[in-house]
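Notes, p. 3: input format for complexes.
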Amino acid sequence: MKTGFLHDERCLWHGGGNYAQMAPVGGLVQPIAGGGGLPEDPETKRRLVNLLRVAGTMEGLAEGSAAPLEREDLLRVHPAGYLDRFKALSDAGGGEIGLRAPFGPGGYEIAALSAGLVADALERVARGELRNAYALARPPGHHATADWPNGFCLLANIALAVERARARGLVERVAVLDWDVHHGNGTEAIYATDAAVLTVSIHQDRNYPLDTGAFRTDAVANLNVPLPPGAGHRTYLEAMERLVLPAIRAHEPDAIVVACGLDAAVLDPLGRMMATAETFREMTAQVMALAEDVCGARLVAAHEGGYSEVYVPFCAHAVVAEMAGLPHVEDPFAATFRVRQPGAAFERFASGLIGEMARTGPA
Ligand code: ZN
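Output follows (363 residues plus zinc ion):
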């Protein structure tokens, strides 16, 4: 059985907004030459597809697309009023809703297609048709709450996938592991009172959104692991070993879905972390071993953030190749970033924070 790789060129045509990085263009903010846009850019994803092809990896994957989610699927997570507003603006040529969630003409259909890629990935893995699967979703979804689009996210891709799979009787208990550098506030909010879906987020402390993502001990089926800016390879793996993996194991899920942001990588303009492609490869290996143990290896990764055009493809390739058991490619930046990893003093400090969280433990 192969690893699925679900993607669609139409998702890369999602657009809208006129920003210079995070700042709206206007006043003293000069427009970007060639047309502004959000840092959430199609090029990171297109270069990943190109890398998979040029490296020969795609030949070993089950490549495909999927149908967009139907309105009845979207209504399992999002209220009708929000969907109507989004669709009307999309039909009228695009616009912006919520906070930093712009879209162009047809953005509604593209977002439904993005969610469809994740839903099909989970469904085909749960049905045993694929070994595991990677969905190159765009727009991303992990910040979107039921009725508040934000942070480039319009529809809650992973929650929509989980709810369709649950409605079809394919899974009951799910663990969502979000290693995007930003807190997975949308997924957390949607499942805040649902003990069947564990949401785990490992992220940079007080990056976006500022007011969510703290470690707490009173949550229902939720674990937040905020890490200090500057955390690198060893800190990520330690947090996985001591906090993340035990929490998922204790939840006894039927499937694990990774919200696979690649913006904790050292070159990312929206994060201040120091993960490398090797970090993502090793975290993937850790989760695969756990999935093998607890849920028949049922594992899906849904693409989220990641804003370095040159480095996202290598980080994502590491995840996909590891999931598929296919040869890895050489990370051309590895030599540079090995010497830029945090020093021993930082690692002792971060290890102390992780130890504190491990001792306190979620309720
Ligand atoms: Zn992110």
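The chain has one domain: 3-360.
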